[in-house]
């Protein structure tokens, strides 16, 4: 089946719900492939939106790639990045002139405003300063999540956005993923009756946990943000969004159980390249980076290097990515559970787990007339009345490009809505404005307070 073909429009009944707003194609009996219809508020653009990227790492590159792919919609005209390798690479990719290349975000704002928008994809603890300054200078902002490391800073950014009247889109990209868009639509139309409860699961995948939250940039919550915000504010947000209910209270438990010194194998080294038991370790940096070639973009190896394995091994001798996972200064929990009380007596359980062999979120939503079960590759709706199951398989433009992102194609769909919102100066085109996204951050801060205190925390907006 050609996944890029134009799907024919049809309608079907799920429960008591008629579904006809998307482009659907029948795969088999009661099984459908679908795309999300174009946003009806989109309009022809007189010119591309211009943007400055602050932080040319992974997330900055994702939105930069949208601009490179759709230059009539977005053009990146400036970059701030202290890593010379990444600055050079990003500038070359987008043909950024020398005068528009900067070492730090502060340098950008020493110049008068020279673009429509700023993309903030700096480290978590460097979101607040550039966002506040960008708004003050009249830029619209595409802000990577989490909004900021503290609740006060999040609320300050919200207040500044309201004061200046600028657009702040928070990168809660799951809201744009066709899988979750369909889930929300079906619930809103009553496909499973009244929502009673939710079980939502984020399997981080064990090597991803080791890469990002043990060895990587988010390994220490005091230097960045707690993992419930750094990784799972997506999940807190998507639960409240799909059911369209306000949260009232939250309780959380979790800890760092495995990735610590007392669990280090006997005879293990401080680095994998000098470890006597490295071959038997599931978290071997040599296996992950040098042999599998996974996630090596963080090592900044030039594209023209012919012997990448040797280059990777050299990087593992000096960077955190080569260190033993049991001997880092990490403090992020490797398992985390929360229970949430939403309005209208709806309850939810969320579990974030490091120790899985797989990724992609799993969700179960229980309703009075049916339930739905999904894993981001398909969503199955069961009707209690007819005892029939209907299966939906999402198709998204950038799923193949970012198939390991865990975002279900939401990255480019968010970027497209953002440039339209900036072009039209209409925040209503976005579903993840700062006004909408603040609640899930408060949920995250209260979850962390609950985890540390053992108390049930009220959520006050």
Automatic annotation (TrEMBL):
Residues 184-457 form the Gfo/Idh/MocA-like oxidoreductase C-terminal domain. Coiled coil: none annotated. GO terms for molecular function: nucleotide binding. It holds the Pfam family GFO_IDH_MocA_C. It comes from the Bacteria. Residues 54-171 form the Gfo/Idh/MocA-like oxidoreductase N-terminal domain. It comes from Mucilaginibacter aquatilis. This is Gfo/Idh/MocA family oxidoreductase.
């Amino acid at each position: 089946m050609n996944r890029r073909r134009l799907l024919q429009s049809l309608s079907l009944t799920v429960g008591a719900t008629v579904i006809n707003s998307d482009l659907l194609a029948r795969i088999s009996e009661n099984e459908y492939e679908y795309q999300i219809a174009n946003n009806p508020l989109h309009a022809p653009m007189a010119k591309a939106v211009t943007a400055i990227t602050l932080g040319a790492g992974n997330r900055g590159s994702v939105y930069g790639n949208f601009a490179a792919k759709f230059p009539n919609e977005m053009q990146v005209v400036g970059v701030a990045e202290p890593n010379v390798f990444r600055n050079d690479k990003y500038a070359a990719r987008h043909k950024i002139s020398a005068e528009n290349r900067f070492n730090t975000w502060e340098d950008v704002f020493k110049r008068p405003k020279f673009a429509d928008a700023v993309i903030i994809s700096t480290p978590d603890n460097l979101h607040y300063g550039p966002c506040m300054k960008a708004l003050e200078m009249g830029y619209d902002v595409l802000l990577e999540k989490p909004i900021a490391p503290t609740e006060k800073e999040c609320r300050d950014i919200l207040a500044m956005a309201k004061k200046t009247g600028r657009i702040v889109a928070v990168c809660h990209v799951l809201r744009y993923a066709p899988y979750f868009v369909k889930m929300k639509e079906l619930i809103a139309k009553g496909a499973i009756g009244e929502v009673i409860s939710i079980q939502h699961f984020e399997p981080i995948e064990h090597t991803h946990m080791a890469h990002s939250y043990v060895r990587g940039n988010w390994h220490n919550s005091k230097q960045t943000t707690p993992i419930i915000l750094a990784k799972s504010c997506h999940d807190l947000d998507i639960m409240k969004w799909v059911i369209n209910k306000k949260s009232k209270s939250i309780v959380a438990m979790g800890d760092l159980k495995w990735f610590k010194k007392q669990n280090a194998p006997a005879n293990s080294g401080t680095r994998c390249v000098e470890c006597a038991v490295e071959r038997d370790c599931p978290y071997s940096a040599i296996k992950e980076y040098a042999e599998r070639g996974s996630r090596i973009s963080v090592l900044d190896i030039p594209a023209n290097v012919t012997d990448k394995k040797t280059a990777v091994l050299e990087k593992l001798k000096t960077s955190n990515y080569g260190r033993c996972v049991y001997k880092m200064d990490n403090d992020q929990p490797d398992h985390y559970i929360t229970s949430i009380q939403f309005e209208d007596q709806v309850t939810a359980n969320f579990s974030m787990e490091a120790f899985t062999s797989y990724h992609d979120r799993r969700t179960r939503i229980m309703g009075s007339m049916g339930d739905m079960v999904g894993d981001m590759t398909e969503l199955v709706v069961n009707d209690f009345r007819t005892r029939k199951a209907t299966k939906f398989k999402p198709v998204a433009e950038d799923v193949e490009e970012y198939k390991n992102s865990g975002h279900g194609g939401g990255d480019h769909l968010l970027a497209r809505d953002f440039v339209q919102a900036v072009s039209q100066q209409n925040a209503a085109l976005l579903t993840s404005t700062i006004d909408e996204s603040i609640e899930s951050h408060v949920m995250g801060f209260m979850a962390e307070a609950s985890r540390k205190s053992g108390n049930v925390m009220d959520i006050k907006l």
